[in-house]
Amino acid sequence: MDEVFKALADASRRSLLDRLHVRNGQTLNDLCAGLAMTRQAVTKHLAILEAANLVTAFRHGREKLHYLNPVPIHQIGERWIRKFERGKLTALSELKRQLEQRDE
Amino acid sequence: MDEVFKALADASRRSLLDRLHVRNGQTLNDLCAGLAMTRQAVTKHLAILEAANLVTAFRHGREKLHYLNPVPIHQIGERWIRKFERGKLTALSELKRQLEQRDE
DNA sequence: TTGACATGCAACCATTTGGTTGCCTATTTT
DNA sequence: AAAATAGGCAACCAAATGGTTGCATGTCAA
Question: Is the Cβ of B52 closer than 8 Å to some Cβ of chain A?
Fold first, then answer.
């Protein structure tokens, strides 16, 4: 879980996921196109995404094809985000209530 | 948005949010209790959470009260997580489909 | 008013991170 | 077989990160 959060913390990596979301199964070179960093930098980002299981890659001849795995993102939504959405008052009204309580 | 992702990338900070989710409006000292780091480290984490608007804090006499703001978390769920959940096949079947397509 | 308590500020430190360059290997293509 | 293409590996670097210690300040209580 921590690896997923860490992987998502970087804007370049999120944009790589976006690209794969638009078109799945791209090669490394595909994913590099138009980005303001070297191929090696992209390789490193992809390695982090793979380690977090957000991307799965396969060698196909001399190309490496990258596939998005939406499962960890879904899990974060289910296991983490939703927890903070359940039955919450708005921040401000909750805050006022507690302040009043504290001052008697 | 980037600030929120970055803020959520650290396990200590997520645990601070958890604590505030259990009991809102805690002081700095409350939040330090039982953690394996100094008060100053916690202060820094809280500053990052505040900068990301995930926590709002108020001085009340000599105490500083911290309140969870669930809105940015909700927004990440809405604007980002959901995008990857819409109409997606499972990673594996999608992958197979595309590989077959590529080999004719 | 003096001491204790809650927090703030700043300098410092080690490690991690995001990136680079240079070179090597493997697979196609011609 | 030679050249071009796709990718991998490793060393290096600057900046950001997560943490520390030491001291200062503001507020409450005796």
Answer: no
